[in-house]
Design brief:
Elements: E1 3-9, H1 13-26, E2 32-38, H2 45-52, E3 57-60, H3 66-76, E4 82-86, E5 90-91, H4 96-104, E6 110-118, H5 135-142, E7 159-161, E8 169-173, H6 174-179, H7 192-202, E9 206-217, H8 227-244, H9 249-265, E10 278-282, H10 288-293, E11 299-301, E12 311-316, H11 322-332, E13 338-342, E14 348-351, E15 360-363
Helix pairs in contact: 1-2, 5-9, 8-9
Amino acid sequence: MTLSIIILNYNVCCFLELCLRSVEIAISKIDAEIIVIDNNSDDESCDMVKRLFPEVKLIENKDNFGFSKGNNIGVHQAKGDYLCILNPDTVVAEDTFLKLLKFSKKKKKLGIIGCRLIDGKGRFLPESKRKIPYVKAAFKKIFGNSNDYYANHLNENETGKVDILVGAFMFLERAVYNDIKGFDEDYFMYGEDIDISYKALKNGYCNYYYGETTVMHFKGESTLKDKRYARRFYGAMQIFYKKHFKKNIGFDMFVWIGIRLASIYRKKSDTKAKRILEYIFVSNNMNEKLRTALSEKVVLKSDLGMVKKASEIIFDANYVSYKTIIENINIYKDEFITFKILPHKSGFILGSDNSTSRGEIIYFE
């Protein structure tokens, strides 16, 4: 088998359905499998997978084992020569995996590949490509200087070597994953992507950022950005420093101060009150059930035409390809324009306007 898609899920049923809809199309021309590992969700995720995706291999953990162990469990049962570690709150283009497989065959000592990630508003996510987070760089980032933290030697559409990639999307050979012993299970959540990227480098592999395909990452669906998140994230960074750098009192004090300052100065939610004047439904027909579900006080149009401020664009994936949806979100991104997707064969629309709180789901069936 060529490829195994590993998706670790926790309580994001609708986002997982959208992800699986996009993935099943993207692997239609590849000898591939999809493995979903559920970390003891208390929503309808597992029932949904069994009902709608019977061909997906579902692993139902009886506890929340965290990101590292959960993914390791999935990879242990994978049969593909290549792996894609994929978040459940992502949408892939139809040609994403085909492009990465072609790219992979051209490289020697290939480690991990990441790609261009955008959020639900179309904004580029700079964590798609990063440098090794040495303490000085991480400390400077806390106060808004990210020049030494992100891999700015490449622009977001270029392709080239980078040090660190993000766990929302990681593409690599299963042999490499096994050689570097997968994700370190000392990390429960956060930091494990930095660790595995760094281990690949230490083992002589080259990590790459591939800017020629874009994946949407709604970001923050599985875990809200609250105080618990801050403790886990910066605690994970402390684990990384202790594992990979020489221990000394001054170093530990610097990390201790940085972690606590980061908790104080972490970015506040960018949530704003949403004022929508019109919905633009991009499809080949007007969905009457959706019309009823949306507010009667706004205009529901059937094509893009002139997009005004305070518009919400709804893409119907029964009619528009996921690649085209991603491309159009990138084209029309604007502070005042929001987006939602109607997954094909589904009875809801969803989207996310920021990375610090849960997205919005509207059911109409």
